[in-house]
Write a structure and sequence with these properties.
The chain has 523 residues and is an alpha/beta fold. It folds into three domains: 322 residues, Glycosidases (TIM Barrel, Alpha-Beta Barrel), CATH 3.20.20.80; 43 residues, no CATH class; 77 residues, Sandwich (Immunoglobulin-like), CATH 2.60.40.1180. It contains 16 helices and 20 strands. The chain binds 1-O-alpha-D-glucopyranosyl-D-fructose and calcium ion. The site of 1-O-alpha-D-glucopyranosyl-D-fructose has 13 residues, from loops.
Length: 523
Amino acid sequence: MQKDKWQRESIVYQIYPKSFCDSNADGIGDLRGLISKLDYIKELGVDVVWLSPIYASPQFDNGYDISDYETIDPIYGTIDDFDALIEQAHSRGLKIIMDLVVNHTSDRHPWFASRHDFYIWRNGKGDAPPNNWGALFGGSAWTYDETVGKYYLGLFSKHQPDLNWENSEMRHEIYAMMRRWLERGVDGFRMDVISLISKPETMPDGEITTNGYGDWSAFVPNGPRVHEFLREMRCEVLKDFDTFTVAEAAGVTLDEAKKYTSPEELDMVFHFEHMDLDGGETFKWTDREIPLDGLKQVMTKWQLGLGVANALFFNNHDQPRMVSRLGDEGIYRERSAKMLAVCLHFMQGTPFVYQGEELGMINAKFTSIDEVNDPESIDAYYSHTRSGMFTEEEMLRYISMKGRDNARTPIPWNDANRQFADADSVFHFYKNLIQLRRTHKSIIYGSYTLVDTGDLPLFAYVRQGEAETLFICCNFSRESVTYTLPTDFRDILICNNTDSTFLKTGILAPFEAIVLHRATDSV
Ligand code: TEU
Ligand code: CA
């Protein structure tokens, strides 16, 4: 990959507009509110802003069910507000990428009534659906439509029918829509579940999961024509613009990721293997925690396997807050937030900062299902309590630990303003971290080597650049840890503990993260 591509040297800030900043006190974040925070975002030092969907939507899946790709949903504002956002962002040197949700539309999209050939229809087996696949947000992945006399596929829900990418006319409608947004000033796209768009010819039953339906994830991700479609997308539209593109690739393997990030396809890929480490046979609804060894193995596999094309993240709108998941919500909240940021931001790839992560935000606590908005959690709550798999208390605990609503609580702007003025805040630590990426290219282009720290609760790795070598060491525990440095590093590049004694004593305080550096030995 070219070394000077702006995409390789960018840092991205993800905004979930619905809970980012509400300018008109209707309880919903909006574009005018977002515009009012562009200076805050600029101060953080990021280059690109990714907006979760703001298109017209019935909001079944909070905008990931689009009923019109060409208009802004009125809850967020108008197309003039959008044009103002683009203009205001660009005037600050910020690029804007949109969420491209083209694996499926809303069932309220006009195409669903007028263009059945744009969707995936199959005959049932007698009175039964074509196969046993389950929808991620509950029920069967197949819904019978009386008017058509067939079943249609909705991998996520019946309100999100999957588009038929085998239909060239449909594909070219998508490319034309993309072109119109790019001509309007959009700088690229995060491509929602783009690994799912090419469905296999045959759709066999899947392994039955805890919700009683078959699992399609063994058959659908990385389908037979997905790379052909993405190469066509590049030829038909992307090649005409200097875009930033990232694939959200549920179920991606390393080999597939290398194809998605070839020059003919996209710039980078989100994998989710680290996000699945605290899941199990009951999906995310479990008390399991992410094992540090597992995290180190997965991150190292992708560092060595995919390098600079990694889209790096610990947080997004689908994940619980990482400070709650892997850090500390109590006395070490700020320090553990900074530690997690060091651990991620010194890796190869493009760091994504999710709104509120730069403030050290933690999970919410849900005491009633009535407080929960996410269809994934709501379906799981009712299906698993009705089946007797879990009690209501257990499900509320799991939703409070793992549910997507944890990432969708409003940004506490009073705290953000306090942190903005506090040089020792999590906000300023992120700002300093991001600034280091500008001045130390070894963070972007250096090699990565995991350091074996035995059974110690440490995640340590070395980045070797042409001019300097970095040693990154993160204590993932509430205990102090003694660790003897492997070689002679004498200079601290950044540390989240102003009272660190590590260089003298080899002791890392709880959740201490330290980055040491020295000139690379001339060979
Ligand atoms: O998410 C893809 C996906 O696999 C999600 O189901 C997610 O990994 C899971 O909910 C984690 O528990 C994308 C969007 O990011 C998500 O918000 C949408 O709900 C989904 O696609 C459908 O568009
Ligand atoms: Ca509002």
